[in-house]
Specification:
Structural class: alpha/beta
Domain MurNAc-LAA: 284-416
Number of strands: 18
CATH superfamily of the largest domain: Zn-dependent exopeptidases
CATH architecture of the largest domain: 3-Layer(aba) Sandwich
Biased composition (Low complexity): 225-234
Number of domains: 3
Helix content: 10-25%
Keywords: Hydrolase
Enzyme class: hydrolase
CATH class of the largest domain: Alpha Beta
Radius of gyration: 29 Å
EC number: 3.5.1.28
């Protein structure tokens, strides 16, 4: 910055008179400094955010104004059991040097932003945090901790809810923010500078909702707990594995559209996006490794050419640490798919929720334990494709593409609904 604007900034004409003798105007000029108005701005975030393909999301380290919710990350989610993001802040005042606030203490705090949806006629609930920091690994059970990617001066823990740092010689400070790793758990971060009466609302952070879509079967060879194909369509001859993949891709597209249209932090992973077979345990492991909230495996039934209907499977209660949550997910999916098919075919049948011991739903492979079970799962059997009417509906009739999309959209909406309403 040049010196001329700085001089102009502080000049004030205190008095101006004209000498009666010399006829020369004389001005008395005082130099004033502006009021010491504090500014605290989030200037950078870490780490970078990667999309579902492992590519860096453009601008993911840049701060945006409230109420934009910046996504948090889950690193080794099965071990750390926490979501986090680091925030770098510039503390400054107009017309002051960068080191003007150096050494001053900054106190960090947060307030909840997530509001659970309510049914029509119910009173809206207050914002609340989701989950419990005590579930996190040791060292991550506080809301704030010292950052690793940004340099921070003087980090000090006040208690579980607050911490302090100090402003460095360049006018910066930084911290790591922790939130329980549950979909859409969100917080507004505030800072209060030593000597100031009011805190400054700084930035909003949110845990992304993470969904794994598992198109069943695939490939030409059976794998452990995953056959290459089970059912074949009545007339069209379309294989279950191909129909499952088509629906999986459609659901992913529908979820990504909701991500953009509703401005949600929502990540969608597929266990397969081509004609490949994957062992059942490996499918479940993906959900564990990406820190998913929900895994749904998409399948189609085949039996005797007559049976039909929609059913959704969960692991039995005696071998399922979050049985009730899985059943709630399954019911949402089942109702959504049955409703979409019924809208097109009055012969639709609701076969309800059933229990099966399936590898893709195994708590051990999903990373669920009695103490910590973040991942809900269900296996959806959309319909019996060896039934002639069903085959015509999904693969032959002129509007079959639209019918498929309506079912996929219903699945996507049910999954987001589950993310919002689950415990």
């Amino acid at each position: 910055m040049s010196t001329a604007p700085a001089r102009a900034l502080y000049r004030r004409i205190a008095n101006s008179v004209t000498s009666p003798i010399t006829n020369i105007r004389r001005r008395e000029v005082l130099l004033d400094r502006p009021a010491d108005v504090l500014h605290a701005d989030a200037v950078e975030l870490a780490p970078e955010i990667l999309d579902e393909d492992g590519e860096v999301v453009d601008g993911s380290t840049e701060s945006q104004a409230i109420p934009h919710k910046h996504p948090m990350v889950k690193v080794e989610p099965a071990t750390n059991r926490i979501a986090h993001r680091e925030v770098k802040v510039r503390v400054w005042s107009e017309g002051r040097p960068d080191d003007h606030h150096a050494g001053r203490t900054v106190t960090w705090s947060m307030a909840p932003l997530f509001v659970r949806p309510v049914e029509e006629g119910e009173e809206e609930s207050d914002p609340a945090f989701r989950g419990d920091w005590a579930q996190a690994a040791a060292g991550h059970r506080d809301r704030f901790e010292a950052p690793a990617e940004f340099a921070a001066s003087g980090f000090s823990r006040i208690d579980q809810e607050q911490a302090t740092t100090t402003v460095n010689a360049t006018g910066h400070t930084a911290i790591r923010v922790n939130l329980p790793p549950i979909a859409f758990n969100a917080a507004r971060i505030s800072v209060q500078l030593e000597g100031e009466e009011a805190a400054v609302e700084l930035i909003d952070l949110e845990v992304p909702g993470i969904i794994v879509i598992d198109p069943g079967h695939g490939g030409e060879t059976d794998r452990p707990s995953s056959s290459a194909n089970n059912a074949t369509s009545h007339t069209s001859g379309i294989l279950e594995k191909d129909l499952a993949l088509d629906f999986g891709l459609r659901v992913r597209t529908a979820l990504r559209a909701l991500r953009v249209g509703e401005d949600r932090n929502l990540w969608v992973h597929l266990t397969r996006d081509d004609d490949t077979n994957i062992a059942g345990a490996e499918r479940a492991n993906l959900g564990r490794d990406v820190g998913a909230d929900v895994l749904v495996s998409i399948h189609f039934n085949g039996f005797n050419g007559v049976a039909r209907g929609t059913e959704t499977l969960v692991r039995r209660r005696s071998d399922n640490v979050n049985y009730d949550e899985d059943v709630a997910l399954a019911q949402r999916l089942n109702d959504a798919v049955y409703g979409a098919i019924l809208a097109r075919d009055e012969g639709a049948i609701d076969r309800g929720i059933k229990e099966r011991q399936l590898a893709v739903l195994s708590d051990g492979d999903l990373g669920n334990t009695a103490a910590h079970h973040p991942l809900r799962s269900a296996l959806l059997e959309v319909e019996f494709i060896d039934n002639e009417t069903v085959d015509e509906l999904l693969s032959i009739n002129e509007n079959h593409e639209q019918v498929r999309q309506e079912i996929a959209d219903a699945i996507a909406n049910a999954l987001v609904d589950d993310l919002m309403k689950s415990s």
